[in-house]
Amino acid sequence: MGKVGVALAAACAAAACVTAAVMVSRRMKRRRGWRKVVTVLEDLEEGCATPVGRLRQVVDAMAVEMHAGLASEGGSKLKMLLTYVHNLPTGMEKGIYYALDLDDTNFRVLRVKLGGQRSTILDHDVERQPIPQHLMTSTTEELFDFIATKLKDFVERQENVSEFSVEETRELGFTFSFPVKQNSSSTGTLLKCTKGFSIEDMVGRDVSQCLQEAMSRNGLNMRVAALVNDTVGTLALGHYHDQDTVASVIFGTGTNACYLERADAIIKCQGLLSTSGGMVVNMEWGNFWSSHLPRTSYDVDLDCESPNPNDQGFEKMISGMYLGDIVRRVVLRMSQESDVFGPVSSRLLVPFILRTPMIAAMHDDDSPNLMEVARILRDTLQIPDVPLNVRKLVVKVCDVVTRRAARLAAAGIVGILKKIGRDRNGGTASSSKAKGGSQSKMRRTVVAVEGGLYTNYTMFREYLNEAMGEILGEDVAEHVVIRDMDDGSGIGAALLAASHSASLAIDNI
Ligand code: BGC
């Protein structure tokens, strides 16, 4: 080999060495990047851990806070609001009633025809309307005028001439899914805005009166016969179908629960309730807090950057409005700490861009290549070409965040059962011992549930049910039924309007 040949061979060898070195260094960088994201995931798992022992602490804390909230006004972060609903619908309600179900982004108008015999809802029509974006931050009058005109259109489309005479006043159940301090079963003032709702001039005003005035302004002859939280509507429909229903929970954009309480346990208003046996209490559990809740730095940041810091802490770990954003924050951290997602996408910096239905779709993706995950990362977050192992990582993040939410939700439900003595075999009603048998029989307990998070997100539902079994033990859990109550908040409000107008009629005889 000549000098030239030797030089060429040396140059080739050097180039090969450089290429190999570059490849090794790239591989090492990739490994370091991968190790970093795995560390982020492991920290998340540790921070979100909900072993059954911790869930039981949450159960106890929930029951303790319920007692405190019932003992005095402001005694707990749980407001334990009175609803003045003493009796739930019996099934004997009869006639045509309307409902308006308002949450932060939509409202639904309903017309319900009741047959007067147990569980006969002869007919019901629903229309869903989005609230235009600008009205969600406008004034009370503008919002209610818009709603009243839509309600009027709905009434005119639905009614036969023979059903109501011109002067006849129609009865309406108004579902208003925010914390309201009620003065009666049909009136109450808004305490604060939650979720995405921010019509500040409504706070402190009687929402029922505001709607009533808007209906008059718009020529609609209708009376607000019942003002109810969505939990209370759901409980009413649950109880209408099944009298063992004692509580209800909403898992939607927000979360909350209500239940039937003994009047003598509501210490903060003993005098007021002396004639009645019980009352439905709207817990406003979204604001529950306990040091036993597993909180991560993502939760802290989400809370600080929210319009209501230090508020609705339980809701921010559980409900549909927030789960997607917790996942977004974790993926952002992963992307900032490594290049497994490529360059950091500016979309990852946009709050609430990753919505909970998207994390449900990624979590439930059972295609072998996780095509739905790839699609959402590409279309929503503008992160293209994500390798399969990284897509699996994203699914795992969804899993950790949702599993924590569902297990905490289960602990909340068991907290209610504990407060009313339905969390163990002691919760006996018709004990067969009393009837001469030897074994005590656990009372059947039904909890009505409404909301897309529970209905549409399979893994959330499964984790919740699994945790109920773990906390209660299977022998007790088999007597606790979680029942999906589709449209409960709206239909239930119509039922309450019916039962309230029936009791008013009796009072007036
Ligand atoms: C509200 C509750 C409501 C729940 C579910 C919460 O943000 O404060 O009143 O029941 O959302 O809609």
Automatic annotation (TrEMBL):
Keyword Kinase among UniProt keywords: yes
GO CC aspect terms: cytosol; mitochondrion
Uppermost EC category: transferase
Hexokinase N-terminal domain segment(s): 41-240
One Pfam family from the record: Hexokinase_1
Family annotation (InterPro entries): ATPase_NBD, Hexokinase, Hexokinase_C, Hexokinase_N
GO molecular function: ATP binding; D-glucose binding; hexokinase activity
Single biological process term from Gene Ontology: intracellular glucose homeostasis
EC number: 2.7.1.-
Top-level lineage group: Eukaryota
Keywords, in A-Z order: ATP-binding, Glycolysis, Kinase, Nucleotide-binding, Transferase
Domain Hexokinase C-terminal, residue spans: 248-498
Record-stated family: Belongs to the hexokinase family.
Protein name per its UniProtKB record: Phosphotransferase
Native source species: Salvia splendens (Scarlet sage)
